Task: structure prediction
Amino acid sequence: MSLETDSLALLPDALATLAAGFADLPEHVAVADIEALRPVLQSVAERMQDNFPYQHPLYAGQMLKPPHPLARLAYMLALWINPNNHALDGGRASSAMEKEAVANIARMVGWGDEHLGHLSSAGTIANLEALWVAGKLHPGKKIVASSQAHYTHSRISEVLQLNFEAVPVDACARMDLAALETLLQSGEIGTVVATLGTTGVGSVDPLPQLLALQEHYEFRIHVDAAYGGYFKLASNLAPEAAAAFACIDQVDSIVVDPHKHGLQPYGCGCVLFRDPGVGRIYQHDSPYTYFSSDQLHLGEISLECSRAGASAVALWATQQLLPLEPGGEFARDLEKSRQAALTLYQRLQQDPEELALLAPELDIVLWGPRADTGAEISRLSQQCFDAASEQHLHLALIKLPASLLAAHWPAVTFDSDTVTCLRSCLMKPEHLDWLDRIWEIYKSVRA
Result:
């Protein structure tokens, strides 16, 4: 397998253009001892061989996806300046690009110019900021999320010393509305976290019904769409998921991770607030950083201080090439990932040797090798995972509660609380073209 390197030919011209912007400065070039760098860089390349092939379509396991070549180039180009998007003093151009890129994401979810948002180092920090604001606005009240929500919500709540409670899920692994309403009746809930694309099973919480409950109970709705947010642009979602994304503009805050489906390098998260007035909660004074402009410095609306301006440059560049619009190339690639997941699910459904589980709502597929007991399914799943890896097909494993599986696999005897199942995240649009090869390898190891 070869790595894409043709795009590197564009970098020298771009660097020359960048250097021309500083032509009036006295000449100064930091000299590097190329021959001293060479063996170290080769050692790095050799060490990096000890990785799974995340960039290849036969890697179909975790949420790992290579950045777009343009994102790589733009990120590298920015490193010659190494801007810091904490303050305009550290990154004027990259701060402006961040504001534009974040505004593009806000427009994608249906918001206009009236919003507040910024990039972060990852979805975890973005969610931390959203829950921090929620705790300030509803002091002493609980944060709730489904039991399939990302574990960081309970951990973040612990860090922020906020009360947290998990809400059970229904048979589709979505937040159970009846259980939620029972909690809401106590008057103790300040924020409900709706997950639009859980990272484990890919389920989409019923946002329209949550908004209806919000009319009767006083609580904020925060949407964790770190994984699933860009599917707002996809035209081939099932009706329930499409309805959830259609009303995402009505919630209080949203997190999206451009380093997942947004084709960006790690780490690049994004947090958005519908009410720009929450900016008052961030107010602080740093007299040695905010002095070159009276415009908004991104550090004034962020809990993080130093942040890589290169992330904003890469995201802005990618959005220029691939606008966030329905029907565009970016949206069509998401639809290919979704179609790949549906196709794999249909094959699993039709195969008597497999136990399909939960029609995929986005691009995550779950299943188990058919067996009589949960313990045997777990054993076979591990066996298939290991054998497929030896054939260069990389899947993932997930432990799921037997209580969730029982409704879908009534013939199975569950002899433990959890069962290890197989999981595939078909994030790359190329997965659709490679699905026959993926299926062929998987069935060969099953045999």
